[in-house]
Hints:
- The protein is built from nine helices and no strands.
- It is mainly alpha-helical.
- It has a domain at about 55-175.
Amino acid sequence: MTGRRTNNSFSAAFTPEAVLVLCFLFVATPKTAIAHKGEKHDLSVSSEKKLSAPDGEWIKIINEDYVGTVKPIFQKSCFDCHSQSPRLPWYYSIPLIHGMLNQDMHEAKQHLDMTNDFPFGGHGRPDEDLKAIRDSIVDKSMPPLSYRLMHREANLSESDRQAIMDWIARSEKIAPKNQK
Ligand code: HEC
């Protein structure tokens, strides 16, 4: 009896219309995200701060700005993979998962190492890192989905994303291009 009722409510919840709507949402969402790549639609630059700096000073200014505004967000959402001595999750002690995570964390740091603040370590120049981070925010590729599913608290909120975009916009005004 109970089993039958469950079946009925299951098919009632998933009418063909509902399935269509779900499919539409699934297909439409990533497309919109990609279409906005590189543009500043909803992530508008709201900073009034105008920065200009003499040679060398720009690193210091960007870093002070970073430590005060963006670092706490990255600590919450990125440091597990993009910095040394992360707070290791409990499942790290499961051997197979340990190996997978090690690989992920090692690779992540080769690309972008946030251990010593800005300028970040890794293979990119500061201006390349800023651009790469902006791309990852715009297309929502970081933190990786598999990680986000296990760490809800690492999800970036809209205000996190806005704070990161604003910091990048301020930084790009003073970061020279093509300089290590
Ligand atoms: C679960 C581990 C993990 C977390 C958490 C994570 N990343 Fe990554 N990230 C990676 C890996 C692995 C790569 C390298 C492979 C790739 O590009 O997918 C990477 C690559 C990147 C790159 C590309 C760097 C380059 O020069 O190509 C950027 C930018 C980036 N991550 C930003 C972030 C930001 C910002 C956060 C937090 C909001 C974050 N990541 C959180 C694992 C992670």
